[in-house]
Amino acid sequence: MRSAEIYKALVGFDDGEMTHCDAVEYDDAIWLVPRWIDAGEYRTPERMLRLDQFAHQMFPAPSAINIAVNEPVPHALYSGELTPALKEKYQLYDRPDFRFKPGGKR
Question: Where are the domains of the chain?
């Protein structure tokens, strides 16, 4: 189980919609986490998208948003069906067996 700092990210989609999500540091990179699965004393990401494959900017604390993704993200990456083409084009983890301790919000 990992203890990780949780960032807040603002994400815009290819259909014009915008939302926010968490992001975590893992394997020397920051990953967007659209949804968490809570499991008692830990939680695991439903999906993780590597941030540095998208143009983005970082904002220092105490900003409410720590990361803004500056290019449209395909909506299917965030919450849709992951096609083989999407899995090949983007770095991601789908239902990874990674466990994080809750807390550590930035």
Answer: 6-94
Torsion angles phi and psi, residue 28, rounded to 5: 60, 30
In angstroms, the Cα distances linking 103 to 31, 53, 82 are: 16, 26, 29
pTM for the full predicted model: 0.89
* Tens place of pLDDT per residue across the chain (106 aa): 456 788 999 999 999 999 999 999 988 999 999 999 988 888 899 999 999 999 999 998 888 899 999 999 999 998 888 999 999 999 999 999 888 886 655 4
Sign of CA dihedral 73, 77, 80, 86: positive
